[in-house]
Amino acid sequence: MHATPDFLCSCSCCGKGCGEVKCPYSIDDCDFESYIAKKSACLEKVDGKIRLKRNHQYYYQVQQQLRITSRQFCDFVVCAFSNGTPMFFMERIFPDINNWEITVLKITKVWRTCILPELLTRWYTRKQHIRLLKRTQGKTVCCSNSKCIFKEFHYECLRISDPIPSKWYCPNCRLLPEFQTKKCKKNQDSIDAMKLDAICVCHSKPKVNERLLKCRGENSQNRKFFHLNCLDNKRMPNNSKTTWMCSSCKVAQTDKATTSRSTGPTTCTSTLNIRTAAASNSGVQVTQSSQPTKRELNPTATCVSSDSSDDESDVEITGESTGNLDKTGALGALNDSHYEIINSPSGWLDCAIMQQAQILLKKANPLIESF
Asked: In three state form, how does the secondary structure of the chain look?
């Protein structure tokens, strides 16, 4: 047990004491007479004198404070306000031995029967099997969960009727994660494929829950769905749900791109030359193989946009380049103005200063990480 009095006091004539202060909101304009008439009031009038109710919770609180602190008295103060002016009521309460002895018996019983068993063994919050003391009439159904705390239910109580599935779970067990039914999202591509009579190059009829690859080409009218095995693919391409196209649609889009292209590079060689020139301007040395690649020999090769060539099988290496890249060359060295900013107490650090500091730390100690 514990006690928290609002203040402690001592007097040469009265001895050591404590105090408890209350400020009820229900006291209007410091009218204690009308406050005493309320049922929720903590004060009462006995023999024309106002005092604290002896059966109120505040009285038990004061007696506990006197017992725990071993003080000789407690000043119980009630404060009220009227237009900013305070008004006080005070009663000096002394230890009530009879009241405390009765209270200790009740507290001990609550501790032993309620609090202590719950702290040691979770006596009241743990799951327990409930047994029916009396067999009731009516048709019942058993829960399929072997660990259900109720086991059996009446049709009438749950307002259910036949037929009941072979595996039936009660409303309590139905909320457990292991007994919740998983809702599978319907694949729209599979639904569209089931409407066709034949799919793929094998001209077979689509089956339910079959993994199919859909062509996203504009001219794909028939044979819009394909099997992975028929295409010699072990897995779905990364662009299977966005831009993947079959071989016939790729050829059609390539022919359309070559005929409609009027500006820009017409071959992969010119594109590579532009990239080589851009790399040389940035200080990177680029070396290219002397042997022409397949795309250089065939100007009409599949040099189309990246939207139609996201699949790994469509990627073809046209050239290789090697060189040295100086990551710190673009930053340069710090000048005097930078050092003035660093030394100034009101200066601020920009990205160049912070990056150069990281580079110097890395050179001083290569074991430093996070750079």
From this structure: CCCCCCEEEEECCCEEEEEEEECCCCCCCCCHHHHHCCCCCCEEEECCEEEECCCCHHHHHHHHHHHHHCCCEEEEEEEEEECCEEEEEEEEECCCHHHHHHHHHHHHHHHHHHHHHHHHHCCCCCCCCCCCCCCCCCCEEECCCCCCCCCEEEHHHHCCCCCCCCCCCCCCHHHCHHHCCCCCCCCHHHHHHHCCCCECCCCECCCCCCCEEECCCCCCCCCCEEECCCCCCCCCCCCCCCCCCCHHHHHHHHHHHHHHCCCCCCCHHHHHHHHHHHHHHCCCCCCCCCCCCHHHHCCCCCCCCHHHCCCHHHCCCCCCCCCCCCCCCCCCCCCHHHHHHHHCCCCCCCHHHHHHHHHHHHHHCCCCCCC
